[in-house]
Amino acid sequence: MTTTPTGLPGTPLPPARKKERNRLPLLLAGAGVLGLIGYMVLGNANNNLVYYVLPSEYQQSAAKFAGKTLRMGGLAKDVVYNRDTLALKFNMTDGQTSYPVQYQGAVPDLFRNDAVVVMEGQMQQGVFHGKSLLVKHSEEYKAEDGPGTGSAGQGQYSPDDLKKILNDQSARP
């Protein structure tokens, strides 16, 4: 006679029971991971925001931007560029306030005196140290007034005009 594990001769084994999985820990772990990712993305969003201001707006709220990376837009004046060292210095103005700017690197072909520019960087001891330089320009062509006169009204923008130019989606950096 054969014996079965139950100890009774001839008794078949009971059918195997499937182990029921408790899915609650898995769901909690998944929710925790999603929550952590959301916190990291949203929590660092404020650190990654780059503010855009005109020089006069910066002057009014300088404490707000202290130590932060920001974008400053305006007209480039008194441009000095050394092609050998790639050192660029100019004054950025909106017609009301002006700040000296220093930048190290290649300069776009469209960059010139009175160009509308956007610099990303930080203000340090009254000098804006740029990390990137964008030149804004319109797709609209304006012919010169005559030989040697340059573009009409070039460099004559109000802060509101500059804001419109800098925010214009048709003007490409």
What does this structure look like?
The chain has 173 residues and is α/β, with parallel strands linked by helices. It has a domain at 51-142 and 154-167: OB fold (Dihydrolipoamide Acetyltransferase, E2P) (Beta Barrel), CATH 2.40.50. It has helices at 24-48, 55-60, 62-65, 159-167; strands at residues 51-53, 70-82, 87-93, 98-104, 116-124, 127-136. The relative contact order is 0.13. The model is unreliable at 146-153 and 169-173 (pLDDT under 50).
Q: Any key phrases for this structure?
A:
single chain; 173 residues; alpha/beta; OB fold (Dihydrolipoamide Acetyltransferase, E2P); 5-stranded mixed β-barrel; disordered C terminus
Topology:
Blueprint: H1 24-48, E1 51-53, H2 55-60, H3 62-65, E2 70-82, E3 87-93, E4 98-104, E5 116-124, E6 127-136, H4 159-167
Parallel strand pairs: 1-2, 4-6
Antiparallel strand pairs: 2-3, 2-5, 3-4, 5-6
The CATH homologous superfamily of the domain at 51-142 and 154-167 is named Nucleic acid-binding proteins
The helix content, as a percent range, equals 25-40%
Number of separate helices: 4
Shape: rod-shaped
CATH level 3 topology of the domain at 51-142 and 154-167: OB fold (Dihydrolipoamide Acetyltransferase, E2P)
The CATH architecture of the domain at 51-142 and 154-167: Beta Barrel
CATH level-1 class of the domain at 51-142 and 154-167: Mainly Beta
Report the biggest beta sheet as strand number plus sense, adding barrel if it closes: 5 strands, mixed, barrel
Number of E-state strands? 6
Round the Cα radius of gyration to an integer and report it: 32 Å
- Low-pLDDT stretches are 146-153, 169-173
Strand content: 25-35%
Query: Which class do the helix and strand fractions yield?
Result: alpha/beta
Mean pLDDT: 78
How far apart are the first and last residues' alpha carbons, in Å?
93 Å
What's the order of the H and E elements?
A: HEHHEEEEEH
Strand order of the largest sheet: 2-3-4-6-5
